[in-house]
Fold each of these.
Amino acid sequence: MFIKKNDKFDTLIGSGSEFTGNIIVDGTVRIDGRFTGSIKADWIIIGNNADISGDITAKGVVIGARMHGNIEAAETVEIKPKGILYGDVRTKKLAVAEGAVFEGRSFIHKEVDENSQDNQ
């Protein structure tokens, strides 16, 4: 699975917290509570007790709980064994662990090699 190299969180919505609105962060967001809205960040980690409703735009996303919404990730999306995603995913790499739930569409895009014969 995908491993995030840095465990530093720039924004944290803790367990027992509720937040409604939009978040834009240069860095990592971890959500362990309830969130409704949209999130744009470098990395987004949805903790095991979180409940998310809204869309996400990031480099990478790790889902450990329930999420309703669409994800646009430039690099990776990982759904952990207890993760539940109801929504569409656009990314380069998608990992769905055994036991995870994913109901939606996935669009996996690859990097285009500019020297490829197909592009001429």
Note: The chain is about 0% helix and 55% strand.
Amino acid sequence: MDVFKRYFFSFLIASVIIFVIAYHAEKYYEGQMPHNLTQETRDELIVKIPSGQGYETCLSLQKTKKLEYSFEAEEALEFNLHYHLEGETIFDQHPKMLQTYMGNFTPKEDAGYYCLMWGNPAEKPVSLNFRFEVLKP
């Protein structure tokens, strides 16, 4: 029984320490990491964007990488490419209405991650087919 108590208290102390560290790290980095950050370096998605709403996906992208992406939608969507810095949204590609697009992007800043966002101003849901790949230039 003595061994059980020792392991129990060791586990309890380690759990509390890990919880405290995680709690403080989350508070410190709050708002700096997007909730929708993908770990993929290549993907293809089909998304239905409801009327008046948007869809955003964020990618880990350093200055040493290049993003190739394309999309097609049933109707024109408001598209932009941006990153967040200290609560501000900085646009590398300002919002514009597009139905299809094929392009590439090499970051000028080491922001850590960049987000691609589509907004649906239409009165009905719009289907979006989106492909991307992160490459070494």
Note: DSSP finds one helix and seven strands in the chain.
